[in-house]
Amino acid sequence: MSSPWEEFGYEICDVGINGRDGLNKIRLHRPDLVMLDIRMPGLSGIDIVSQLKKENFTTKFIILTAYSSFSYAKRLMGLGIEHYLLKPVVETELIQVLNKIEQERLEEQKFQEQLAFYNQLNEERTLRALLEGMQDHLSESLLTKLEDKELQLVRICGNVHQHNDQWLIERVAEHTEQIKLIRKDDFNHLLFIQKGPAFIKQFLAKINRSFLENNGQKIILMVADPINHIEELPDAYKQIKELMDVHFCFSEERNFSLSAYNSRDERG
After folding, report:
1. Considering 89, 124, 157, which residue would you say is the last residue of a domain?
2. Kind of pairing, strands 151-157 and 179-184?
3. Across residues 127-154, what is the average pLDDT?
4. How far apart are CA 171 and CA 180, in angstroms?
5. Could you tell me which residues are beta bridge partners of residue 84?
6. 172 falls within a domain
7. How far apart are CA 234 and CA 240, in angstroms?
8. What is the pTM of this model?
9. CATH assignment at residue 176
10. Most buried one in 64, 161, 253, 264, CB count within 10 A?
11. Angle of CA points 96, 102, 103, to nearest 5°
12. How large is the average pLDDT for residues 116-133?
């Protein structure tokens, strides 16, 4: 039988010579799909699936068996395996199974995308509430991420062009655990988590340069002082709003902070 793997986006990465060799090769390659015989020397197909489930593998399995008894089907269903074929395998039946697996994959992908979108919205909503001092709205998972971390809040001021806005989203996504994008009061804010001054300075310089090169946009970055506790975030946000009231006196500054303001004030 000529198997239609390529038609469904698969390629054969390896073949196991027995059950134990197959298990080791699955661990090595971590494939998307595995076809297993239910009876093999060393380990059975059921043994392999059971072990991989314990190791949290998300691989899809097709079990091949010469047995059509209900007891085997029941054991497979108990492991969450719905796809099995009786030997000898008929190509049309294999194609039907592959179509079902592809549909499952698409549905799982859609669910994960929806879940990620929901989590992002929920996280941003939580962060906005935290900036306002509403700590009761803070989720436990986010609390763990931010607890005992050095934080620094930055506001991007200027009419951000759509292209630059997308560029910013993509750059933040590259550092999703260290930078959070918060939209509040018609401004984009960046919350840096456990990032040193050198990284933050470089990242902000990249924003300034990219915005200017792409659409000739000049922006001003309001930089709050670093803080060490999430309870201080409302103070950092208040500091940024205070900087907004005085930055027009220092229009040549692209990155404006309280320390820069105090320095100018002392010299003045």
Report:
1. 89
2. unpaired
3. 80
4. 11
5. 63
6. yes
7. 10
8. 0.61
9. 3.30.70.1150
10. 64
11. 90
12. 83
Tokens of 122: 């929920």
Dist. CA 84–CA 12, nearest whole Å: 19
Q: State the residue range of the domain holding 214.
A: 148-267
Q: What is the pLDDT of residue 3?
A: 60
Low-confidence winner among 52-56, 66-70, 76-80, 260-264 (lowest mean pLDDT): 260-264
For residue 92, the one-letter residue type is T
Alpha helices in the chain (DSSP H): 19-29, 45-54, 70-78, 91-131, 140-146, 162-173, 197-215, 233-246, 258-267
Which of 89, 119, 134 terminates a domain? The answer is 89
Co-location of 262 and 165 in the same domain: yes
The answer to whether the beta carbons of residues 171 and 256 sit under 8 Å apart is no
What is Dmax (Cα atoms) for the chain? Answer: 90
Q: Is 108 domain-assigned?
A: no
Query: Is the model's pLDDT at 135 over the cut of 50?
Result: yes
Q: pLDDT-derived band of residue 153, with 50, 70 and 90 as boundaries?
A: very high
Whether the Cβ atoms of residue 253 and residue 243 lie closer than 8 Å to each other: no
Asked whether 5 and 12 are in contact (CB, 8 A), the reply is: yes
pLDDT of residue 1: 46
